[in-house]
Amino acid sequence: MWDNKLYDGTMSVGGHAVDLAKIKVPTLHAVAEHDHIVPYDSARHLIPMVGSRDKEEVMLKGGHVSLVAGPSAIKRLWPKLDSWLGKRSI
C-alpha cells in the first residue's frame, strides 16, 4: 500500500507510525481468490506481520467487490464473519 510502506513498516496514519506487530486483538484476514486489485500474492504478507495470537486468514471465492457485496458475499463472507465474531463475543 502506497509504495509498500505498510509492508516495509514506514507507513504512518495521523502522524503515528503503523506497527502491525502491535495489533493484539483477534484478526480475521479475508482475501478473495480472484481479486485483481489486491491479489493474494500481495495480501498474504499481512497476517504473519500482525502481533495477535488469535489470527486467521480465509480465502473465499470471488473478486475484490464480490467478496463483501452481492449474493456471493451473503453465502460466503458474511456467514464466516458471523461465525468468527460469534466465537469471540462475550
Structure write-up:
- This protein has helices at 5-8, 40-43, 46-49, 71-75, 77-87; strands spanning 12-13, 16-17, 27-32, 55-60.
- The model has no long low-confidence stretch (mean pLDDT 93).
- The longest helix is centred in the last third of the chain and has 11 residues, at 77-87.
- The protein has 5 helices and 4 strands, in the order H-E-E-E-H-H-E-H-H.
- It is globular.
- The protein is of the alpha+beta class.
- Strands 1-2 form a two-stranded antiparallel ribbon.
Average pLDDT metric: 93
Strand order of the largest sheet: 1-2
Distance between the termini: 34 Å
Radius of gyration based on Cα positions: 14 Å
SSE class: alpha+beta
Provide the succession of SSEs: HEEEHHEHH
SS strand fraction: 15-25%
Helix content: 25-40%
Biggest sheet features: 2 strands, antiparallel
Q: What gross morphology would you assign?
A: globular
Q: So how many helices?
A: 5
How many E strands?
4
Low-confidence sequence ranges = none
List keywords for this structure.
single chain; 90 residues; alpha+beta; two-stranded antiparallel sheet; two-stranded parallel sheet; 5 helices
Give a brief rundown of this model.
The mean pLDDT is 93. The protein has helices spanning 5-8, 40-43, 46-49, 71-75, 77-87; strands at residues 12-13, 16-17, 27-32, 55-60. It is built from five helices and four strands; from the N terminus they run H-E-E-E-H-H-E-H-H.
Topology (SSEs and partners):
Blueprint: H1 5-8, E1 12-13, E2 16-17, E3 27-32, H2 40-43, H3 46-49, E4 55-60, H4 71-75, H5 77-87
Parallel strand pairs: 3-4
Antiparallel strand pairs: 1-2
